[in-house]
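2024-03-11 09:14:02 INFO receiving multi-entity request
2024-03-11 09:14:02 INFO entity count = two
2024-03-11 09:14:03 INFO echoing inputs for audit
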Amino acid sequence: MKLPESQTALVVAQSTALVRKAAAKLAKRGLGELWLLESAEEWFERAKTAKSQNQLIKFFECLQRTVALDPEHTDGLDQLGMAYHDGIGTLRDQVAAVEYFRRAAERGHAQAQCHLGLVYDLGHGVERNKVEGLEWERKAAEQGYAPAVWRLADRYAWGKGVPRSRFQAEAWYRKAAEKGHAPSQFELAKMYLNDAIQEQAKIFIDDPSKMYQGKRHWSVGVFDKTAEAESWGRKAANQGLEEAKEWLARYYSS
Amino acid sequence: MKTEIVRQLSPEEEELVAKREELARLEAQLADQELVLASLKAELAAFEGLYLRRVGVLYAELDEWNALLAELRAEQAGTPEAKAEADEARTQAEEAYSAAHGEAANVQPFTPSPDLKKLYREAAKRVHPDTATDEADRARRERLMKEVNAAYATGDEDALRRILAGLDASPDAVQGLGIGADLIRVLRQLKQLRNRIAAIESEIASLSEADLAKLKAKADLAATEGRDLLAEMAANIQGRVNVARQRVEKKSDEGTGK
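2024-03-11 09:21:47 INFO inference complete, emitting structure
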């Protein structure tokens, strides 16, 4: 069947318009995909810049592109997890956050392991599982990631999820403190001062007559412990930890 | 010795002279603007042709593999959702193919010679529809202007020369209906020219806003850095084409393996 000539012309004109539209669509598509030509690292750098300029939506988009270009970009995965967890530049989606933390954590990213431990511990976007939480936290701590080390030390100090162990707590606090983690330094300071007081208390209990005779009855061990407490307290205060500053001021006024 | 009789111009005549001078200036300006617009259009069309030939064809191929994959999936799954997805993928593939292998893809690079530009400016000035004095004249000029634009886009200098020669042969517009009538006509022409110049400006602005122009700007910028953006895009899509093809092959092996 043949169309009348005028109608054929119409069909041609219509199909030309359709082809024009399709070509315009291809141009739009190419423009929209130019970001694929850059590296994940470039987009991650841009994400960091956007964050520092408080452009949160841009920050989020740059992170998405980072992990789209490199699905194993662990820094990007972890940051994207944080963005979803806290709703930075996107709607809060804690289930998605867990998946991103997991992807980075399974590839050995310490911070993501710590984050994954935390969301298991709190039951954010995943069924609460203290054992799993502890396991991920320990992995991060074993890599020397200070916040995880600190949390683990805290667990041992207070017996949270692990048997209480003064020895373990001190060892983990010290590990973080030596990496310059201020809250851990402060915990050590308090711990050593507590030791000093315990030791002195023992002396007084053995001979209460010494109670009113002041510092000259302090043992060498007590002096050592207070000195160590003071030293860690000062380190924490020097890093600007308010609690430690206040504590140190009171310590000196004693 | 000849004596020259200098007649004092009446105020209307002075006004007419001034307006005619302004008209001549605007005609020149309009011809320049038409040249800018025609060049922009031709450059964009040429870039589109290049883009469709180098990048568009790969998009079409990618969409074809994706459509095949969706169809294989639909065949195996047999669900209405899979069928709908396959139909959608097929439509997109056909659309991309029609664009990538259509007429727009045949447009060749646009490199106008100085002569071509000069001829175009001259022709645009002489035939411009907005200098028309009546409707019949306007229709004739509009037709001619289309020919001028087409000749310019294809770089056809001879066609432009022919159009100009034809104009020389055609009689000048009738004049001399009196100063008042002349003045009214000139004023109307001025208004038309100004309108057209404004229209060209907004057309240039909207063309520059289009995705194609943005893409061209990016490609031009990349070229100044010694990069070939279209080649980079092509390489990227080629990689995705290879992945898609492997998926289709794997899927169709699964299908026959059953």
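2024-03-11 09:21:48 INFO post-check: The first helix of chain B runs from residue 11 to 77.
2024-03-11 09:21:48 INFO post-check: Chain B has a mean pLDDT of 88.
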